[in-house]
Amino acid sequence: MAKQMGWNDTIVALATPQGVGAIGVIRLSGQLAITIVNDLFPAKNLLHQASHTLHVGLLKNGTEVLDEVVVALYKNPKSYTGEDVVEISCHGSSFIQEIIIQTIVAKGCRIAKAGEFTQRAFLNGKLDLTQAEAVADLIASNTEASRNTAIKNIRGGFSNALSALREELIKFSALIELELDFSQEDVEFADRTQLNHLIGHLFTTTQTLLQSFKLGNVIKNGVQVAIIGKPNAGKSTLLNALLNENRAIVSDIAGTTRDTIEEVLNIEGILFRLIDTAGIRTHTTDFIESIGVERSYEKMKAADLVLYLFDVQEMNAITLQDVVNDFEQQGIRFLLVGNKVDTAASSFEQFSTFTNCIFISAKDQYNIHLLKEALVQAAVDGSIDTEATIVTNARHYDALQKLFVAIQDVQDGLSNHIQSDLLALDIRQALHYLGEITGEITNEDQLDFIFSKFCIGK
Ligand SMILES: Nc1nc2c(ncn2[C@@H]2O[C@H](COP(=O)(O)OP(=O)(O)OP(=O)(O)O)[C@@H](O)[C@H]2O)c(=O)[nH]1
Ligand SMILES: [Mg+2]
User: Is omega for the bond preceding 231 within 30 degrees of 0, making it cis?
Assistant: First the structure.
């Protein structure tokens, strides 16, 4: 891997969030990390201290006391980046942190770019690319499920499985390339049956990973749920019931909600972005309301899932069937929810043909738990195991798709008994995409792009 400009610099950044906190951690990495901090730390000579030790003392710039700090030493190669790393835990005031960083920079360090610590870890072979990207996901994770997935990927997740398969494939590739040298003699060094077996294994692994992306996306980005229905159906009441707070204004005046209201709800570790919309009616003379209705249509089309709410007393089975047909025609995923069952003891029995319709009372919070279960089921599609390895990254998904095509080419080639040289070409292609996922093959632009999405200090 070619090392880029600035590679030899010692870098520094605040590793904890900006702002006031109990403590702040300033992190340095590079050849001069220990020397620079040692210059500011008169209590001890840090150059003579062992790796993985903590040291308490004053941080001083000449005679000026900057702060009382704890210094942690990590000597290369046993550190996060693989270089010498020093972490200074100081008091959590932005002012103090800023002064310390400025003093360190004046001693010959430069401010780290976003993700540069992790990029160095990658370049020094401490992490592979999927692991490094998982670090970014972990920092950004905001639910239990997204945290679990990110941690699994940092520990090796699916890149371990793919690396093992890649190595197997490299062996075959070498044998086939060898056959090319003996092309006159018509020999086969690479056992075709075993190769077929390996390719079959790659095929299913890749397929499973591709399928997991849908759930991965859900876990990482959440599910957009638009609450749609006629005016007064109880949409805002339902939003409040789901959130367990009085977020949206509720009234018996049709057309209460004029604009859309968005709130986030976490159910069983999955993030739902709930959108309460203006009730949809075909004829409205109110200009503001008509803009709201327009937005409801937009939200409905953009949502991952539409929650269609109706008043069981106002609705009839024929109209509801029309609604269902409409959704199906437009390819919109939806849940049917009949509301206000508290007002009508039996009238909702006419909807018994709509088997997956849920009946609730938003006002009385009746059956809200059933609705929540249905939301989770719809999000994970009922079939995928959240404990399995999950692809959450669009770059991996893209490379996996290309890999999938390349594997199919190899499979076709094998069953058509194509010549070794052509087969070798197809295998090389598959190896290329495999390597792109785990980061054995990357170019600098790609790396810069990936790491630029990190925050500074990571
Ligand atoms: N009895 C009963 N009344 C309900 C229920 N849910 C909502 N309501 C009432 O229905 C009326 C309309 O409720 P909203 O939540 O404002 O309805 P909406 O769908 O948001 O209406 P718009 O914003 O105008 O489109 C209010 O008077 C609510 O109290 C329910 O489950 N049972
Ligand atoms: Mg409303």
Answer: no
Q: Is 310 exposed, middle or buried (0-12, 13-18, 19+ CB in 10 A)?
A: buried
Question: Which positions ≥6 away from 271 have C-beta within 8 Å?
Answer: 142, 143, 146, 221, 222, 223, 264, 265
* Weakest mean pLDDT among 11-15, 26-30, 299-303: 299-303
Distance between Cα 276 and ligand 2 center (Å): 7
CA 274 to centroid of ligand 2, rounded, Å: 13
Ligand nearest to the CA of 228: 1
Q: Which of 440, 407, 402 lies closest to 426 in space, CA to CA? A: 407
Q: What is the CA(251)–ligand 2 centre distance, in A?
A: 8
Pocket test residue of 237, 240, 243, 284 for ligand 1, highest count of atoms within 8 A of CB: 237
Amino acid (1-letter code) at residue 264: V
> How confident is the model over 342-368, as pLDDT tens digits?
987 666 778 888 888 999 999 999 999
- Computed over every residue of the chain, the mean pLDDT equals 82
Q: Is 255 in the pocket of ligand 1 (CB under 6 A)?
A: yes
**Distance from residue 245's CA to the centre of ligand 1 (Å):** 15
Closest residue to atom 23 of ligand 1, CA basis: 257
Task: Name 184's Cβ contacts closer than 8 Å, sequence gap at least 6.
Answer: none
